[in-house]
Amino acid sequence: MDWGMDNRLAQLIQPDGHALFLPIDHGYFQGPTRKLEQPGNTVKPLLPYADALFVTRGVLRACIDAKRTKPVILRVSGGTSMVGKDLANEGITTSMEEAVRLNASAVGISVFVGTDYEKESLLNLSKLVNEGERYGIPVMAVTAVGRELEKRDARYLGLASRIAAELGARVVKTYWCEDFDRVTRGCPVPVVMAGGPQVDTELEVFNFVHDGMEKGAIGVNLGRNVWQNDYPVAMIKAMRAIIHQKATPEKAQEIYEVERRAKYNE
Ligand code: 5RP
After folding, report:
1. Which residues does the annotation mark as catalytic?
2. What is the pLDDT of residue 265?
3. If you average pLDDT over residues 7-16, what whole number do you get?
4. Around Cβ 262, how many Cβ atoms within 10 Å?
């Protein structure tokens, strides 16, 4: 592997082989998502515990302090919205030159396998990989499910993840699902898990993150279940313990409770 590519991946994936990416890119199609209305304020207390930020160039420039931040995975696909006709009809929004200018450690793009725009999104990924390899910038493929959350099973996610890796993604972001080892076994590059919409309890999140790690994920790219939580710092600290210290879900829950009480004196 070329030095630049190797070095950028090492900025993202820590020496233990694991990674905690914090995505705050949701506004690129959802607008001002709850608790992310002011991304700079949301992310500031969380930054010390994240290994990288997943963010668009607009929010990066407007809200993130260039002198006090973490490695950046630049979201470079978009062009659709929640209220538009089809979320899957994305294009590449940001050039590789811009990624270099912003000192990105990687770029991220969604692929929409099984949709009307499957071919376009996969060819966009391929194009981005061609450019990324030229500049030594890794591409993270996001296996998007759009509004159809029922697609989150091992068969579909395994298929989408493998295709993304075959086309040259250096990292694949997918969702946790039952039999997650089927997804990781079939994907020859590192896999990180997204969280999806906020779930009812913290323990549910700790359980699936822990299970995914046991089954071959290298970490998470998980946003809403951290920053939409009432105690986001407690949440990210607990998550970090699972990812980097092999904590059990129960231990993570304990860390969450201790942090929550300490902060709010409850
Ligand atoms: C949104 C994304 C997010 O980065 C991804 O879904 C992870 O965030 P969350 O854990 O909130 O689902 O790609 O387009």
Report:
1. 173
2. 61
3. 98
4. 10
